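Table 4 source record.
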Amino acid sequence: MNKDKLSKAIGNSPEANSSVTWSNNLKRGRVPGPRMKENKMLPDTLGGSTIAVHGGTYEDPITGAVGTPIFQSSTFNFSKHTYDSFAQGLIRDIPTYTRYGNPTVWSTQEKISQLENAESTILFSSGMSAITTTLVGLTNRGGHIISSFDVYGGTYNFLREDIHQLGRETTLVDGTDLAAVDAAIKPNTQVLFFETLSNPLLKALPLRGLASLAKARNLLLVVDNTFLSPICLRPLDEGVDIVLHSCSKYMNGHSDLIAGSVSGSRKYVDRIWSQMLKFGGNVNPLSAFLLERGLKTLALRMQAHVSNSKQLAAFLANHPKVTRVHHPSLPNYEYPWIQEYCRNGYGGMVSFEVKGGNEAALALLTHLKIPLVATSLGGVESLISLPFNTSHSFLTEKQRQQIGIMPGLIRLSVGVENIQDLTADFDTALGQI
């Protein structure tokens, strides 16, 4: 293939900006991974908890260590095999330099791949690095991205303030409205990017409908599944092309790590990896080690998060000081299709509105004893915050109300504490506002 044809095939030409035709030309044979022969492989028929504990673990042939070692090295010895791999374009599959790949990182990536039922995964230094690198890597100059108004604030700001500087354009719609998404598609649309469960109102995507629409229109469907984790939902099984996470949240689960991940077919993930090399957002081996350790308890932690959030949502829905609760388990939830693909619960997030607006919400935070007033989510401890002065403070009050963020809205990440203790704490605190 000559250079002009190659450029068009991979989407680097301005002429290649109608849908993602380059993706159908990525014909080179690919194997899952990268992985090493020492990485433990499990059949996908096993349960999520078994895979979380054992999948991808580096089984050290010298020491027999039970845990994956930390390969705290920036570079690795070259050999004839190294040079042969360079010549064959297989550099992602051998250890050469930690920005390109590292055995500890590969082990953690492989565990996530097995949890996601994905061919390949990349780890990043943060969830935002995963998002920005993916959206740039899967589009080209002149391309168009469709996303939602109520995505994570950092994502929204990137799409609103920065993506056009890179020659891409964005249209924001209601991701739960298939007709609105379809109407927003242009000849140069390349990617649909949404959150499976939105922040902070927990709106669930019509995932299968979006996957069918993307396939019919030759688009890539990319989703942020941070709020649910692969225990509650495996988007790739529903027709999604790429799934990403802020691994700082449920995937790690202990509020002591910043990381991100991207999983999908090898041909797409290889392209994102190539973009990551240039942006430099790779994770370091120690962070990968900590993430793998956190992942081992993911299934167990999610059981507690799911159970606690469901019970607390039911309690709040019947409290006289609460005007509305957003949670998929409640009878008045507006997006019932989530029940089609979330068979292990709906994560640990609950959003609710209190009487008295933002002033009352601020007062509630001062009376609670167990939840910590802090940003982020998905840790073993309950975390509580107000979207109006944190994640969505960049919007005007009118803009917030247009997407459903009403005065008095509180976002709660329900931890794994005793549910009776949590319920009693909220009952007491609500009684004081």
